[in-house]
Structure formats: C-alpha cells, structure tokens
Amino acid sequence: MRRIALGGAALLAAACSAQAEVGVPAPAAATPVSYQADIVPLIESQCATCHLTGEEAGGISLVGDVARDFLVGKPSQEAPVIMRVVPGNPDASYLVMKLEGTHLANGGSGGQMPFGAPPLPPEQIAKVRQWIAAGAKP
C-alpha cells in the first residue's frame, strides 16, 4: 500500500512539473496606475468638492492637473514635517495617512478624508499607494 501512495505522489509531482513546463501563464503583474486615467478622476470625484481652489482647509486644490502640483513634494499644512506625497514612499505620504486614518498617530490633525463621508474603498487607496510607489508621476 505504501508503494502505491509513493507512486501516486510521484505521478502528481511529475504532472505538476510537466504543466509548468508547458507554459502555464504566471499571474499578471499589477496594472500600472496612470495619474490621468486613475488618480485625477478619483480625486476630482472624492476630494475636489472640498479642495477646489486651495483656499479651503488644508490649503490644497485637488482639481485635475493642478492637484499634483499641490501634492508632490509639498509639506502638509497640518503637519509641516510630513510631505503630502513622497514619490516612491506611500507610507511616508500624508495623503495616504489622511485616506487611511493614520495621520493622527503620525503627528497630523483633523479628520480622516474624505471628510464627512465614508473612507475610500481599499482598492481606491491601493491605487493612490501604487501611484505614489511608482514615483507619483504625472
């Protein structure tokens, strides 16, 4: 009986090996996030209604192409030692902290964004994180 079990295990291993050699596709890499296609529509629909001109809370305008100029490499008003967006480092970016609600633990203030609304779904925050991790390019 033991020989049969070992023989079955060997066959299973050989089948898996053969399947790998035939060219079973590897899982696809994460689709790159585009500032124009993914981030601009997100911030315009979720953020720009309160951050329109830059005169509002936080001193930040989150409308279209202007938003990136207010975000990348700029210190936050609430915690000036923390940059709003640190290209390549979503964990050090105040924008991510505000979206995830971790800003208070990092020396920030105010409420989680979007203010007065439910937090963004994890997949939307993941897009912001991915954009920042890839360098926060336009």
The share of residues in helices is 40-55%
Total of DSSP H or I helical runs spanning 4+ residues: 5
Poorly predicted ranges (pLDDT <50, ≥5 residues)?
1-28
What would the principal axes of the Cα set say about the shape? globular
The end-to-end distance, rounded to whole angstroms, is 65 Å
Structural class: mainly alpha
The share of residues in extended strands comes to under 5%
Major sheet, described briefly? Answer: none
Mean of residue pLDDT?
Answer: 85
Radius of gyration: 23 Å
Strand elements, count: 0
Order of helices and strands: HHHHH
Would you give an account of this structure?
The chain is an all-alpha fold and 138 residues long. The chain contains 5 helices and no strands. The chain has helices at residues 2-22, 35-46, 64-71, 94-100, 122-133. Helix 2 packs across helix 5. The radius of gyration is 23 Å and the shape is globular.
